[in-house]
Specification:
Number of domains: 2
Strand content: 5-15%
Number of strands: 12
CATH topology of the largest domain: Aspartate Aminotransferase, domain 2
Structural class: alpha/beta
CATH architecture of the largest domain: 3-Layer(aba) Sandwich
Number of helices: 13
Radius of gyration: 21 Å
Helix content: 40-55%
CATH class of the largest domain: Alpha Beta
Largest sheet: 7 strands, mixed
Distance between the termini: 29 Å
Strand order of the largest sheet: 2-8-7-6-5-3-4
């Protein structure tokens, strides 16, 4: 089989060999129920608490404020749903934007539809960054209970002004939730950010199906469903010690991997430069913003994004045309549409590199693009 090139690191990351090994050992030796008080349970519990402590260290928080979830989607849902759990009218306001991950935008729509709040959809610049003035105006108007924002956009890599927005939220007495799923391990960690943050292990080379909501002591979490007393009764269900072993290992790697990701920027820029020189009609969506070093989103005239993804796949290169959570839809990316309109969004693809992306991968990718462009005329 010909070598494949994986350039979809924002969708998920290949698990580290040491993560796989840590989970293998845990499956053999620490398979007990971490809620049990006997020795098998205590052994499993130790792995869970090690993972909790590792996540807290990465965030600059307290292990007691780390609540395990099934991933970033559940963490975002839990934060938003908790903020409006006791609302019975539309007097409260949720502030977010259309460039957020679907786990935020869809949940915001659900909250508004249920009558618990109204949603203020903040303006977004063509660079893919939320408009600070618009958010402050919403906060000044009063009634805002929660502001939620990504730290790094999942489709363009645009770094959002979360610190400034967090300060504004605090100034006007609102809570702030930060979706940090695409930030951990990729950019320098901003510690103790907002009142809650979302984390997903599979974005940092850990296992799928496990994440966390990291909260400040003043952020009240409401259970989304009933069950046992695990995770202080806020997220019932047996925590998997095997996954926890992988999380702890992946987090330790992520803390040290930011410099490796910084070096990826040159490879990302090489792809952008080569393709734009080949066709000066290509637009780098969000290219004028401060971006995480590993992501580029390109609108390529004459192509439908999904069709170009399929053509690249046949050539052995894996990229995407948007969030993996929206894959399979025929509509253009809502995030890119909010930035630059539906036409450019329909022709966009996302290329996300990783710490294992080589110069040879980059050159082969450029060669394949040129082959496809030549074939299309």
């Amino acid at each position: 089989m010909a070598r494949r090139i994986y350039l979809d690191w924002n969708a998920t990351t290949p698990p580290l060999p040491e993560v796989i090994e840590a989970m293998r050992r845990a499956a053999e030796l620490s398979w007990g129920n971490p809620a049990s008080i006997h020795s098998h349970g205590r052994q499993a519990r130790a792995l869970v608490e090690d993972a909790r402590a590792a996540i807290a260290k990465m965030c600059g928080g307290d292990p007691r404020d780390v609540l395990f979830t099934s991933g970033g989607t559940e963490a975002n849902n839990l934060a938003l749903q908790s903020a409006f759990a006791d609302q019975v009218d539309k007097k409260s306001v949720l502030v977010t934007s259309r460039i957020e991950h679907p786990s935020v935008t869809k949940t915001a729509e659900m909250i508004e539809k249920s009558g618990r709040a109204t949603v203020h959809w903040a303006r977004v610049t063509s660079a893919g960054v939320v408009d600070l003035d618009d958010i402050e105006e919403a906060l000044k108007s009063g009634g805002v209970k929660l502001v939620t924002m990504q730290e790094v956009n999942h489709e363009t890599g645009a770094v959002q002004p979360v610190t400034e927005v967090s300060d504004l939220a605090q100034k006007y007495g609102a809570r702030m939730h930060v979706d940090s799923v695409q930030a951990f391990g990729r950019i320098e960690a901003r510690r103790r950010l907002g009142d809650s943050r979302a984390f997903a292990a599979h974005k940092i080379r850990g296992p799928k199906g496990v994440g966390a909501l990291i909260t400040s002591p003043c952020f009240r979490v409401e259970a989304m469903f009933g069950g046992g007393g695990q995770e202080k009764g806020l997220r019932p269900g047996t925590v998997d010690p095997v996954a926890a072993a992988g999380v702890a290992c992946a987090v330790a790697h992520a803390i040290e991997s930011v410099s490796a990701y910084a070096a990826v920027a040159a490879k990302r820029d090489r792809i952008e430069r080569a393709l734009c020189e080949r066709n000066n009609a290509i637009v780098v969506n969000g290219g004028e913003s401060v971006r995480a070093p590993h992501i580029t989103n390109l609108s390529i005239p004459g192509w439908v994004g999904a069709e170009l993804v399929a053509a690249l796949d046949l050539e052995g290169i894996s990229v995407s045309s948007g969030s993996a959570c929206s894959a399979g839809t025929i509509e253009p990316s809502p995030a890119i549409t909010a930035m630059v309109g539906a036409d450019r969004a329909a022709s966009s693809i996302r290329i996300s590199l990783g710490e294992e992306t080589t110069d040879d991968d980059v050159e082969e990718t450029i060669r394949v693009f040129e082959k496809l462009f030549s074939r299309a005329g």
